[in-house]
């Protein structure tokens, strides 16, 4: 297995780790909110979360954009980023209202042709034994897949192949189903700078 391919599999594993960490975050926030609410006066009571709005999220290298509707907040600079993820993670956003995390991982320059790369990726996903694995047909520059990990978290990913970079774009959640995650990723673009 080559290093770039292993990096994308690591991205899938990374998304599992990040998802587990994100799953803990809303509970911690709820505990803090409950304590704050109990001691709050009506004047300083927390307001309802803002309504979902159209957003365009762009990776830190300006190579990948995702147009979504939600309240996604940047997690790259915060403590929610799993240890060791800084090297390839170029976007991580979390929407507390929908419990969906979006990530983009740059796995570097491809070393194999797209057809061979996607065949190897599909085989590796099948061998990983993920529940509910669905791998779409690969095109010359992208392959979609979804699965449920051993913790019950749903993942929906798009791997993008460009001559200079491989990108793994994933949406994952402990509560949203794969159809919802796929809808979240319906408008992913590789920007011209990266092509």
From TrEMBL:
Residues 35-58 are annotated as: Disordered. Residues 1-23 form the signal peptide. Residues 35-46 have a biased composition (Low complexity). PROSITE patterns: PROKAR_LIPOPROTEIN. Keywords: Signal. This is Lipoprotein.
